[in-house]
Automatic annotation (TrEMBL):
<feature type="region of interest" description="Disordered">
    <location>
        <begin position="1"/>
        <end position="29"/>
    </location>
</feature>
<protein>
    <submittedName>
        <fullName>Transposase</fullName>
    </submittedName>
</protein>
<dbReference type="InterPro" id="IPR009057">
    <property type="entry name" value="Homeodomain-like_sf"/>
</dbReference>
């Protein structure tokens, strides 16, 4: 017994690797999960094939899906929208025809004309503000009586 090590002795040939601690870092902005139409259809087919009590719940827990999502997907399937779901930005509308040089010149002339009119209107507004300020000074005398 003198050559035996106690069962709680440290060291020796029995090395046990400890698992690494879980990453506790929280992402700055969580991403919403998105499901493809094919995934939704396959999951609905699997749920429709469930025969026994508790199978649907087991599938939903396994996939991490809420029953409200399944209800919405079933409604989409009934309405025929599920097959037409496409993700991504909407397609750009191509213009009917590109602007010609004549149209471009006309639009530039109109733009310049409108800019000149805007400058004149701004000058008129500035003058009105100054006149209003002068009239207020002239209306009230130094003693405060009109």
């Amino acid at each position: 017994m003198s050559g035996e090590k106690p069962s709680n002795a440290v060291g020796g040939d029995d090395v046990v690797a400890l698992p690494s601690p879980p990453d506790l870092e929280v992402t700055a902005r969580p991403r919403r999960r998105s499901f493809t139409a094919a995934y939704k259809a396959a999951l609905l087919a699997e749920l429709d094939g469930c025969q026994h009590s508790g199978e649907i719940g087991a599938v939903l827990r396994r996939e991490g899906i809420y029953s409200s999502s399944v209800a919405k997907w079933r409604q989409q399937r009934r309405d025929g929208v599920l097959a037409a779901i496409k993700r991504g930005p909407p397609a750009r509308m191509a213009s009917a025809k590109p602007a010609t040089d004549d149209e471009t010149r006309a639009l530039r002339r109109e733009n310049a004309k409108l800019r000149r009119e805007l400058e004149v209107a701004q000058l008129a507004i500035d003058i009105q503000k100054k006149v209003a300020a002068l009239m207020e000074i002239g209306l009230t005398g130094s003693d405060g009586e009109p």
